[in-house]
Amino acid sequence: MSTLPPCPHCRSEFTYEDVGLLICPECAHEWRRETAADAASGETARVWRDAHGTPLSDGDTVTLIKDLKVKGSSLTIKVGTKVKGIRLVEGDHDIDCKIDGVGAMSLKSEFVKKA
Q1: Number of C-alpha atoms within 13 angstroms, CB side, residue 26?
Q2: Does pTM surpass 0.85?
Q3: Where is the Protein YjdM N-terminal domain (predicted)?
C-alpha cells in the first residue's frame, strides 16, 4: 500500500517520488510533499543545497567545483579547495566562510559540493 498522497490536480493514486518532488504520471503535475507542521505554520524553512542537491548545514566542510576569481584581486581560488566550517546566510552569496591564504569570503552554494 502506498503512503504517498494522491495527485492534488487529477486525484490519481499512481504518484511517485523523485528527488524530493511528488510526481503524477497521468497529468505530469509536480509538487512538494507538505508535512503537517508545514501546513499548520504556513511557512517552510529554507534548505540550502550544494551543486549536486545535497543539503548543507552550518559547520559543514565543502569543496569548490570550479575555479573562482576573487573580485578586486588577481587571486584565483582553485577547484578542489576545501572550506571548513561554513556559515549559511540569506542572500545571493549564501555561504560565509574563511579560506586559508585568502581570508573571509562569501560563496554561492552552486559552486561547492559537500565533502
Answers
A1: 10
A2: no
A3: 3-31
